[in-house]
Design a protein that fits this description.
Elements: E1 2-5, E2 14-17, E3 27-37, H1 39-46, H2 49-54, E4 64-72, E5 84-87, E6 90-91, H3 97-100, E7 111-112, E8 124-128, E9 132-134, H4 141-144, H5 147-157, E10 166-170, H6 174-185, E11 190-195, H7 198-207, E12 211-214, H8 220-226, E13 233-238, H9 243-252, E14 253-261, H10 273-278, E15 282-285, H11 293-302, E16 312-317, H12 321-329, E17 335-339
Parallel strand pairs: 10-11, 10-13, 11-12, 13-14, 14-15, 16-17
Antiparallel strand pairs: 1-2, 3-4, 3-8, 3-17, 4-5, 5-9, 6-7
Helix pairs in contact: 5-6, 5-11, 6-7
The protein binds zinc ion.
Length: 341
Amino acid sequence: MKSLVKAKPEVGLWMQERAVPEIGPEDVLIKVKKTGICGTDIHIWNWDEWAARTVPVGLVTGHEFAGEIVAKGALVEGLSIGQRCSGEGHLIGKLSRQSRAGKFHLDPATRGIGVNEPGAFAEYLRLPAFNVVPLPDSIDDEIGAILDPLGNAVHTALSFDLVGEDVLITGAGPIGIMAAAVARHVGARHVVITDINPARLKLAAEVADVTPVNVASEDLREVMARLKIVQGFDVGMEMSGNQRGLDQMIDALVMGGKIAMLGIPPGKSPVDWSRIVFKAITIKGVYGREIFETWYKMIAMLENGLDVRKVITHRFGVDEFQTGFEVMRSGQSGKVVLDWA
Ligand code: ZN
C-alpha cells in the first residue's frame, strides 16, 4: 500500500510501498479515504528537535483521518464492515490510575499513531476497535478527517463555561479559528481572535462570527472599548505558543479570569507570576481531547449547526502531498486535506 513515510532523518516525507498492516483480535483495518495535515506533521516534516527526539525513522506518519472499516478482529463487537469512521489517534494504556478512573486522555502511557506508532497517511490503517469513532451520514469524509484538530478546539473551548462570556483567543491557526466557532456556537457574547498574520485573521472572520484583531497594527484595548468589554475578557484561549500572546492575554483578562492553554511555547519562557496571582487567574493546560466525551459533544454540535468547513482551504490528491505540505508550511492556509481514494 501507498504510505507517507519518515524514511530519512532529514527534512521531508517520502511516498513508499508498505505491507497492509495485520490486525489483532481487538483491532479493525480501516481503508483511509481522507486525511488532514496537522501542525504536528509539519514538525515531523521539518525534522525539528522534538521530531528527531520522538519519531522513529521509517514510521508511517499522519493521525487525522476518515475512512471505512474493511476488516475486523475476532473479538470486535458493535462495529461492522463498511462502517464509515474516524478515530482517536491516542492509543492509551489500561494500567494507570487515570485510565482506570475513565480519564483516558490523562493516561501517561499514551502512544500516538503517526508519531510513535504507524499512522494514517497510508491506504490502510490498523486501529484498536476501542479507538474507532463511527461517523453519522451527516458528517462527510473531509469533515471526518479534521475531527482530531476540531477535538482539540472543542476540548479547549469547553474547558470553561462560555455562556454570555467575553472570550479572547490568541493565535488564529486552524485550531484557534475552530475554537472561536465553537465558542460562538455555545453562546459566548464576544469572541475576539488575535494574530499578526492577515490571511489567517481573514479566514477566522469567514469561518465564525468573531472579531479579528491584528495586534501588529491594531490596539486590543481600543477593540475592547468598542465592544464594551469594560473590565476585561472572562476567558482566554492561548493557541499561539507565543510569549507576547500570553502576556497580552493576562493583561486583558478580568479579575478571576480563566485561561485554557493549548499553544506550546518553544522552550522555557519568562512568566510574570505576580500578575497571575494578583489577578487570581486560573490556567488549565489542554492536551488532546477527552476520550470520548469530546468526540460525543463535537459530533452533536456538528449535527446541530456548528459549521467549520470553511477552515479547510486546500484539497489535494495524495500524489500532490508535497504541494499540500508546502501550502501548510507557508502559514497562508487553513486546514489542508489529502484525498486517498
Ligand atoms: Zn492533529
